[in-house]
From TrEMBL:
UniProt-recorded name of the protein: Glyoxalase
Residue ranges constituting the VOC domain according to the UniProt record: 5-119, 153-271
InterPro entries attached to this UniProt entry: Glyas_Bleomycin-R_OHBP_Dase, Glyas_Fos-R_dOase_dom, VOC_core
Domain of life: Bacteria
Length: 302
């Protein structure tokens, strides 16, 4: 029951060609491209939309420049969808487009879309077999490059919000859409997951920057090698890394961030914690370290 996954994200951009090149390099599948619109797809069938210039069909942007304008969430069925539409529509306008997707805004002004979750197109891909003394999984099988990295799915979205009104911003998703707070980091923000996904978080509202804007969209990769090689490929293509390779504390996933020309950053992530209802809500009075580790080197750049 409840929200199952991220269905799509929508960006407005001033340079469509550059953004198309970015997500092509990133490994998403280009479904279609027109003069002012391009659509990409993840391996499970989620979509990422790039729209050139402003768009009257979207709510006003919460920040200037290229940015994320809307996140569309997929409900389990029509009954759930109707309940969510009714819940969000008690005090704000909700519209329905020709494709049956409902649109409104959250407390900060970000666009929120609601639809029935699409069927996953994805055939599961397991991690590469690894060896350690006592647990040998690969014999007479040398490894090679993983090749072109194709992210599996959009696994979470992180949005920056003002400190003023942060409780109401979180309550919109928890009380009306059934999101489950997993880790509340009082100086920083609230991590949440949706009932249909066991990831430790699918959504983060981060109030530490004290302003509204896109932080990042995260894409799951099959494994550690994919995160490293995918990041290397983006650097080779001329894109700028935003953080050193590392492993987060909250969520435990391995990460690599790249600055995105559409606004904010994108993250390649692998090995995220999975949780169930017994995880509860963990409250942190002080912020845990951002990462368990990040890559360090004493070697000079060559």
């Amino acid at each position: 029951m409840g929200i199952q996954r991220i269905e799509s994200v929508v960006y407005t951009v001033d340079d469509l060609e550059t953004c198309v090149r970015f997500f092509t390099d990133f490994g998403l599948d280009l479904l279609g491209k027109e003069e002012k619109h391009a659509t990409f797809e993840t391996r499970i069938g989620q979509t990422l939309h790039l729209r050139a210039g402003d768009d009257d069909g979207l709510p006003p942007p919460v920040e200037s420049g290229n940015t994320l304008r809307e996140v569309v969430w997929g409900a389990e069925d029509e009954d759930d969808l109707a309940a969510f539409v009714a819940a969000v529509g008690t005090d704000r306008e909700v519209t329905r487009d020709a494709g049956g997707v409902f649109h409104t805004v959250d407390e900060t002004g970000f666009g929120v879309g609601l639809t029935v979750a699409g069927a996953s197109k994805f055939e599961p891909v397991g991690p590469r077999a690894a060896n350690v003394t006592g647990f040998v999984n690969r014999v007479n099988q040398a490894l090679s490059t993983v090749g072109a990295v194709r992210p599996l799915r959009m696994c979470h979205v992180a949005l920056n919000i003002p400190k003023d009104g942060r409780e109401e911003a979180v309550a919109f998703y928890v009380d009306r859409l059934g999101f489950i707070p997993t880790d509340v980091v009082k100086p920083m923000g609230v991590f949440m997951r949706v009932p249909g996904d066991a990831d430790q978080h699918n959504f983060l509202l981060c109030h530490r920057p004290d302003k509204a804007g896109v932080n990042h969209v995260s894409f799951e990769a099959p494994g550690f090698d994919d995160v490293i090689e995918g990041g290397n490929h983006m650097i080779e293509k001329g894109w700028q890394e935003a953080r050193r390779l590392g492993r987060h504390t909250v969520g435990s996933n391995v990460f690599r961030f790249v600055h995105a020309p559409c606004g904010g950053r994108v993250e390649l992530a692998a090995d995220m914690d999975r949780v169930d209802d017994t995880y509860g809500t963990r409250v942190h009075e002080t912020a845990p370290p951002h990462h368990i580790w990040t890559l360090r080197t004493s070697r000079e750049q060559s």
